Amino acid sequence: MTIPSARTLYLAEWVVPIVRPPFRRGGIVVEGERLVAIGGEAELRAQFPEAVVRDFGEAALLPGLVNVHAHLELTAFRGMLEDLPFVKWLAVLTRLREGLSAEDVRESARAGVLEAIRSGQTTIVDVGATGAGFDALCESGARGLFFQEVFGLRSEDAGESMRGLIERLQPLRAHPCARTRVGVGISPHAPYTVSARLFRQTVEYARAHALPLCVHIAESRAEVEFVRHGQGEFARIYERRGLLWHAPGVSPIRYLHDLGVLAARPLLVHGVHMEDEDIALVAQSGATIAHCPKSNAKLGHGVAPLPEWMRAGIAVGIGTDSVASNNTCDLLEEARFGLLVQRARRASPTLLSAETMLRLLTLEGARALSLESRIGSLEPGKEADFIAVDLSGAHVQPVDDPVAAIVFSARGSDVRFAAVGGRVLFDGASVTTLDEERLRARLREIRTRLRHRDALIRD
Ligand SMILES: [Zn+2]
Fold it and tell me: What is the per-residue pLDDT across 315-329, written as a single tens digit (0 to 9) for each?
């Protein structure tokens, strides 16, 4: 838990700076919160003879991974919502959540951060209904961005939704952590849960207070059908609840554009169903994308047009989404799956590369959050957010290309060390800022209660 004031020299068999090719037997020097040097072992030892040395051996040093989309609050639901159609999945999740106390939700979020840090995530973007994810990120020492969710189907309720949103935002924005490590933003959830008026008001508020925006968009076919034609499962839900919906008759992305949401450069989550025109609109607006390939596959939404986004110059990061739809929070697995599914779908053995995917996990993910000047690569002057990935395992050896080894062979559980701003958060045995044993026990208790509730609501 101590912040080293002196210099520390971290060494490993491989160093992967991202902004230049990987090299052998080298390291980085960290002083306080910043990375001050990178180079070969001999050169760094000569230049910093007084530095405390930590050698990870057969491992790779690389920037901390950036998870651009998670729902930390939902960690307790892992493995509970299997094989459900999306709309049913959303409905069951919503009803189960009502059975959790505020403290349960906080523990669930802490368990989510624990898993993320252990698998090398040093920056985590969380979207949540309560501030539990914000608090968990602050306590844990991780870097992050928390988006406060807002919902409101009825146009006439927009004012009330905004008041609730502002009330929830105020304590978060006033928290000292919000000025340093964990940013705060707003997430109007999705076109089928947020009225046009509420979308406009959230954008206005975000612009007036310089807050980032995040929207779930173009995730399912049901959503496209609802926005384009006013039909399908979401339309039926509106009907049943006596809600009015005038389908705008355009794609979900065009709808966001017409509402003025894209102009606020939001982080768009999913975007599975995007036509060429949608991709051009996003690229022109400067909006960025959180790509969650495993969640998209598991919920049967499809394969997002990742190569097309990248060709259009859109900043794309990789997100795990919640473990309720994944079921792991492991970005190495996410990147591997994201690459393989594109190659399988397009029958191409050369589409994307391990290097490209590792860039999405680090520098591009940082760019999607406008943090690329501070994190995402190993460069002097940047914040010392870095990890060590063990490459000695039987499932990884032998190694002569560390990037291929990290993306195609390694797992989150191969991460041996994680630091944020020079502070050690994971030392290979445990996360230094969270009580792992207590959290595991609490998670089991919460799960027992959730199972009980599940049996009741499914009857
Ligand atoms: Zn999500």
Answer: 999 999 999 999 999
